[in-house]
Specification:
globular; three-stranded antiparallel sheet; 1 helix; about 70 residues; alpha+beta
Length: about 70
């Protein structure tokens, strides 16, 4: 059975002079948070605000300028 993935986005993440941004694609919040912890190598000081986005399929692109 295919696991449904969600996009977890934290804005105002680990603010200093400006706010940061973190995101993870995972099946649940705990796994998403663990991915961020692993990537940073530590527990974030401030997670900020969380928004959750559910998708069946997802794609995106950026074209080059010229």
């Amino acid at each position: 059975m295919k696991r449904k993935l969600r996009l977890f986005v934290w804005d105002e993440f680990c603010p200093d002079y400006t706010c940061g941004l973190a995101f993870a694609i995972a099946p649940d919040l705990e796994e998403a948070m663990e991915q961020i912890r692993q990537k940073m190598g530590r527990e974030p000081d401030d997670w900020g605000r969380l928004s959750l986005h559910e998708y069946e399929n997802f794609s995106d692109y950026v074209i080059g300028g010229g």
